[in-house]
Amino acid sequence: MITTVTLNVAIDKLYTVEDYKPYEVMRVKECTATPGGKGLNVTKVIQLLKEEVIATGFVGGHAGDWVLERLDERGISHQFVKVEAETRTCINIKDLLNGRHTEFLEPGFTLNAHEEARFIEKFKELLKTSEVVTLSGSIPKGIRATIYNELVDIAKKAGRKVIVDTSGNLLVEILKSKPTMIKPNRDELEAITKKKLQSLEEIAGVAKELQVAGIPIVAISLGKEGVLVVCEEGTYQGKPPVIEAVNTVGCGDSMIAGFAVGLVKGEAIEEIIKRAVAVSAANALTAATGSFEQADYERLLDQVTVKRWAD
Ligand SMILES: Nc1ncnc2c1ncn2[C@@H]1O[C@H](COP(=O)(O)OP(=O)(O)OP(=O)(O)O)[C@@H](O)[C@H]1O
Ligand SMILES: [Mg+2]
Q: What domains are there in the chain, each with its CATH number?
């Protein structure tokens, strides 16, 4: 079983408009709403990979109930802590004329220490039956900035594997707790090192330092270039074929799902990387975020290359 943690759930609304202009009344041509938050994308992809998954985090108000109903419809198991405040909505406006997007991200609710403590109890309970845990995205206001460190400590003490995918200060801080795996993209890695990383060798060098310092799997995702993975077995580069990407949002989350499934199955690292690259590239081929077509995934599995670098 894999537990996915989404502390900052959102309802993602996509408005399609003909010609977006600020300060004017806009008629929305099409409007869709989906449960969002990076951890929920991870959850959806794990479910599509046919591995058992349970989603947790915080949801609140009617909007929170709406999210849970959508998860129920998809047959996704969940155990969220319910709070009174409303789950946030994030609005993405797609301009049909030029294909460009404008995003409005609500700040979301502010939680308190009591709600945080309820979540930690739930997390401990879920760990009893979960071999792998994923922690994704940002955290709500009012929650201690060290919550991910605490969750990683609890998971490690319980002998569970824990993957953390976050950015900014949360990523810098989590390095101290040595999760089983991190997956920064190039920008997130450069934010840690505070310098531009030009070559793959330079990126691998930084990843190696993090791995030697005690993070067993350091994966650096490189968009269409694939992923560089430094782990005990060596340094590996996984590459997708060149594809006609439709929507790359959620590719990182799909990659996390691929790694989580590989780790729970106890596969060899080459196999895990192959799955993670194939499923994340397959996600880029669909318009929906955190989704893929089985046929794309299977075809890509045959086309992905995984090479071990010479020592
Ligand atoms: N254009 C693309 N073509 C093929 N594969 C892609 C493409 N973009 C992304 N991928 C796959 O998805 C993986 C993760 O992508 P990326 O490095 O963009 O993650 P990210 O920036 O964390 O994404 P996000 O946080 O938006 O989900 C890549 O390592 C690659 O395997
Ligand atoms: Mg990402």
A: 1-20+28-178 (3.40.1190.20), 180-311 (3.40.1190.20)
